Amino acid sequence: MPRSVNSVAKRARRKKVLKQAKGYFGRRKNVWTVAKNAVDKAMQYSYRDRRVKKRNFRSLWIMRINAGARQHGMSYSRFMGKLKANNIELNRKVLADLAMNNPEAFEAVVNKIK
């Protein structure tokens, strides 16, 4: 009995990976084994960094809120504690945006909790 191979599926798999490797440098873009490893590593990085991006943005928001709060003589932790105590439910993203782009609104929030 002849050996059964599915060359159509094999070629499609390779084409898919080589298409993902488009724009890579050197043999990473056109040699199957090298491209496969490069694409696998890139996918690992992209999966990981989608989560890291969320951490980085939260950290940025905290820095901006802290800077805004300190301009009004209050630390970040005190500011957030008083927000919770006064049942003001603004998330860090919104507070950071206010502190950066709308300082008078941020000052109104600070005066409300003092």
UniProtKB/TrEMBL annotation:
Binds directly to 23S ribosomal RNA and is necessary for the in vitro assembly process of the 50S ribosomal subunit. It is not involved in the protein synthesizing functions of that subunit. It holds the Pfam family Ribosomal_L20. Belongs to the bacterial ribosomal protein bL20 family. This is Large ribosomal subunit protein bL20. It comes from Psychroserpens burtonensis. SUPFAM superfamilies: Ribosomal protein L20. Gene3D superfamilies: 6.10.160.10, Ribosomal protein L20 (1.10.1900.20). GO terms for molecular function: rRNA binding; structural constituent of ribosome. Keywords: Ribonucleoprotein, Ribosomal protein, RNA-binding, rRNA-binding. GO terms for biological process: ribosomal large subunit assembly; translation. One of its GO terms (cellular component) is ribosome.
